[in-house]
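USER:
Before I trust my own judgement here, I would like a peer's view. Write it directly below this note and I will take it from there.

ASSISTANT:
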Amino acid sequence: MKRHCLAFGLVALLGCGSPERVTLPAVHQAHDPAVRAQVNGLERQIRTLEGGDAGDAELGAAVGDLGRLYHGVQLLDSHAFTALEAAEACYREARRLDPTDHRWPYLLGFAAETRGDHEAAAASYRAALAIKPDLVPAIQRLARSEVEGGRPDEAAALWNRALELRADFPPALYGLGSLALERDDAETAADYLERAVAAEPGAGRGHYSLAMAWRRLGDEDRAAEHFAQASHTDFPFEDPLIGELAYLPAGSAALVQQGLIAVQAGEFRAAATVFARAIEADPTNLEAHRHLALAHVDAGQFEQAEAAYKELLALDPDQASAHFELAQLLSNRGQQAEAIRHLTRATALAPDYKQAHYQLALLLDRTGRPAEALERYDRVLALDPDYAEAGTRRAAAIAAVGRPTEALELLGARVDDSPSDAAAVQALSVVLRQQNRLQEARTALERSLRSAEFAADDEARLRTELGGILAIEGRLRDAARELRTAQQLDPTEPQTSFVLGMVLLDLRRPEEAARAFAATLALRPDFTMARLRLAAILAQTARCDEALALLDDGRRFAITDPMFAQASQQLRSACAEQ
């Protein structure tokens, strides 16, 4: 090809690379000057190559890279249609310049697939496979395009080819199973789909199809098992050429979108790193600050999350949602007073923020301020009169401010209207227990457990309450039975294990009690009373080294707790005398 012809053709086609011809979305114009700089840099590179001694392959790669950048912009913003058009123009020119590079027809096919043009996509995928026949992602995408085009036999042949290249490739197994299901060959479908979900258990779409296959085969038990795992989650597969596109654009806003991709993949620490880079690129990017905080929370990095929220609120003190999220974090870390302060601020900024009012009411309740909590519950119910849980909590607060008769009437009516409302049943029992009406409390719980169906965690809470009442009544073995059942139903509730430990101590079974207290601490290391009880058992059984280590580890959770300090000193003295 003559260089002057190439130059003319490139100039004609480089609408894909010309800022005048490509308009980026407003959000990118505002936040991504780095992307514009990337575009300009690639344009200059292309024009330098065009005027120099570069071969067609080198020039084609440069044009293709510009297309990949535009494609990345579109993947980060699905409304950036002009960016996708620019990417396609670049891919076509890159393919013309270098017909031996499989990347350009493949990416052109993916762009066409994004636009919903499956025929054009299929043609491009075939062109890519003509260059690189063993490209499994292209085989998979072409097979899906063939299905969309009404050519199932061609799709089946492609999926079988994929399995030859990559044994037990889940998307191919799923594709063949789905085709068998459409042909009413449920037995073959079940075979392929069982292999598919075994290789990729998180693909809920596969579980749904497998459930349908087992239903057609008359096995309702297996069908129910897989229906329970069904979702819209598809079978993922590695596709490096596509996967790297979204990471090409630079700039703060682009980095935020890249971080969100990592969040969707469950890679929270990696996401936090990307969000931090977005903040470095633009320290005023509030979205980046908020997502950084959330990513730290999801990664279990709570100190870093708290710092990130505080930086966000220093930039914008009027973000009600940030005050709310920080309050939740602080509450979970035991900083109730600070949490209340931020929730109060959130409700002042957003008076109709129902969930902030509700969480504030819960915290006020837990910190012994029922009258203030009652005001917040009233506000929640004014915003949403059908908020049943708030109504239940409000009734409990009414009891706490000295109006138990009124509370019991409200809770009794709620339980009568909705016998399966576990929160109402529990609240009714708690108020009755607080009034020393133990038999009535126990009867209410036992009646509900016999007559209504509850979720496992709800039933566990009711049985924990029942176990506590039985223990107060002196029926320790019955209490232990209920508490063990509750523990099996919901092993994640520390209160159940703690109460069980106390009952087992009263039954003079210290070794079992120690296991129950250890289970409590595994769930909640800051559960001071469980730590002290376990340490006491260890000390009494001549295991003082373990007891003292346990106390030393717990000091960080009880720095200002005088009870912990006193009990700790007594245990140390007892151990020193042994």
